[in-house]
Amino acid sequence: MFLPPDRPLALSDQADTRALRVDALVGQRAGRRLWGPMHWHVGAGQALWLRGPNGSGKTTLLRCLAGLHRPEAGTVRRPTGGQWFIGHATPLAEALGAAHNLRLWLDMAGATVDAASLDAWLQAQGLPAARPVRQLSAGQRRKITLAPLDLAPRALWLLDEPFDALDDAGCQALAQRARHHLGRGGVLVLTSHQALPAALAGCAQLQLATAAGAGLACAEAA
């Protein structure tokens, strides 16, 4: 279920190993405070949409949640069951095909996927396995970077502009995958400059302000 609009983001007193929690988290970049301190949690089966203008620190917050950027202060407690952080500009080996890229990426992430499952996923997505990715469209490349969500499910999805470059059908398909993930008790935090597809309508929003503003504010669900 989604976090309803009348239920603010707040730190729970109850220990829940399936929740994503932040406590007194403060973000900075190049010595400049971006947001915080913030206290909230996103429980199992819930989604959070990070919003804000360019420079407000949305990607920095995602990277702090993933453990890839050190916050100025505060703590992050991630749910058990692993995580996927998929950035807006996830690099691909341009001379290699989709299958080779995914095998390398999954191996580095410690995820085991058999060749048959990988080939079946590529066929289902209409993606060529061996064609160099430099010859693929931006939408096809985006599908490749999102493949680990299906091939090696993990509890926490941290997605930076995941709908970018996808056509309407691709956006709807990704939203349905996200809804299925939440239905299984997963947690989702994402950024998106565009409106979310209907399948994700009603998820909670966290509005980040510019450095000259208040720092952050919780918004009602869309």
Describe it for me?
- Keywords: ATP-binding, Cell membrane, Cytochrome c-type biogenesis, Membrane, Nucleotide-binding, Translocase, Transport.
- It comes from Ideonella livida.
- This is Heme ABC exporter ATP-binding protein CcmA.
- Pfam families: ABC_tran.
- It is a single chain.
- With 222 residues, the chain is of the alpha/beta class.
- It contains 6 helices and 9 strands, in the order βββαββααααβαβββ.
- It has 2 domains: 151 residues, P-loop containing nucleotide triphosphate hydrolases (Rossmann fold), CATH 3.40.50.300; 52 residues.
- Strands 5-6-7-3-8-9 form a 6-stranded mixed sheet, sandwiched between helices. A 3-stranded antiparallel sheet has the order 2-1-4, covered by helices on one side.
